[in-house]
């Protein structure tokens, strides 16, 4: 089969259909082909890879398995579409984004269902993510109209000086499996609003969410070549994006290790980089905090998305005066968390994404216990091979693996501290710097920690801090640049200075 085969309808899933898919109101949102140059595109030889439900192991779909050649075709399509898209009035690009936003909103329940089936997170969390994804499309539809030209007071006689922002060009977006819809819209809406065209590679664990968004983008009237989704193995596709001189900006969300490789690969073509990398966040609870409030903050900061979140509180430091009471109360809340498939009513903790994540979590727990930590909650993984029981480890020393490397699992590691200076030093003793959480009733202390902690974002006495209006990103090896806010839009633009003789 030719790599550019077009079809007008989704390919039916071969074999048994996942029972959850019968709940889709709009089955056309379930797409199995890549989307390149306005066409639903199969791989050479109709190569496919399976997408499986991590809760049940059932096959959800068999998706086109593309490679470097098709990635190059997607870049070529985006490059052809760039001049026309870039030349549109900002209001015209905004109109297409608003149409996309309206269609996503109409399909919220179906999109959440697809996400839960392929990713495993509880349905309520998937619905929350689609709402979050929507916020970026809405925000950047408005921000598209605010890329204003600046007039600079001239220091040269008879000269008028202007500074304008222009779209960088083709934008390559590499998105993760833990937030498959929100991470795509956060990047794509900003790029499209700025006048860039897009080539995107979603994680092969969760391509269906991206393909459903592409279906809605097509319905919204995005021109051919403006928005492209390339499915398949990450490495050859990402390498092609990084090597192609027509790609002028790469936006990646993933591990610090892979981020370093992408940055090195992009160096020869001097691409703009926007990267959201590893987290390993500290949560610091002072003994002046409300115990109930501290426990609820810790529960939410650690166990959302089953702990598979770069913002997850992986190192929980509790001041000694409240330490024992906190551990007891936290443990009581953890054992009440409901574990199960994401489609099951009331589920709070779903499966992990893959077997390697389970193995890493088990190794971190074993290592912590070997270093003297205590396991407070039971070890019971009877639901299936990808389920990890929410676990509380106390008295975890800083030398334990779980305190030194990122944890993507529902495992909470708690350790005591004595002084403010001590905990700041311990919290900063990492290569990561994405987000930190602080719970204290002392306003002056909160401000001191806001200055002292080496993190791009700080949450003081709350968990939810992200959103379309704020600059999301980290310090040190947690990333480059920012997403969201006007800064996220400007990341896809370049500055051009005009000096005009008016004499």
Automatic annotation (TrEMBL):
<dbReference type="InterPro" id="IPR016160">
    <property type="entry name" value="Ald_DH_CS_CYS"/>
</dbReference>
<dbReference type="InterPro" id="IPR016162">
    <property type="entry name" value="Ald_DH_N"/>
</dbReference>
<dbReference type="GO" id="GO:0004777">
    <property type="term" value="F:succinate-semialdehyde dehydrogenase (NAD+) activity"/>
</dbReference>
<dbReference type="InterPro" id="IPR050740">
    <property type="entry name" value="Aldehyde_DH_Superfamily"/>
</dbReference>
<dbReference type="GO" id="GO:0005829">
    <property type="term" value="C:cytosol"/>
</dbReference>
<dbReference type="InterPro" id="IPR016163">
    <property type="entry name" value="Ald_DH_C"/>
</dbReference>
<keyword id="KW-0560">Oxidoreductase</keyword>
<dbReference type="GO" id="GO:0009450">
    <property type="term" value="P:gamma-aminobutyric acid catabolic process"/>
</dbReference>
<dbReference type="InterPro" id="IPR016161">
    <property type="entry name" value="Ald_DH/histidinol_DH"/>
</dbReference>
<protein>
    <submittedName>
        <fullName>Aspartate-semialdehyde dehydrogenase</fullName>
    </submittedName>
</protein>
<feature type="domain" description="Aldehyde dehydrogenase">
    <location>
        <begin position="40"/>
        <end position="497"/>
    </location>
</feature>
<comment type="similarity">
    <text>Belongs to the aldehyde dehydrogenase family.</text>
</comment>
<dbReference type="InterPro" id="IPR015590">
    <property type="entry name" value="Aldehyde_DH_dom"/>
</dbReference>
<dbReference type="Pfam" id="PF00171">
    <property type="entry name" value="Aldedh"/>
</dbReference>
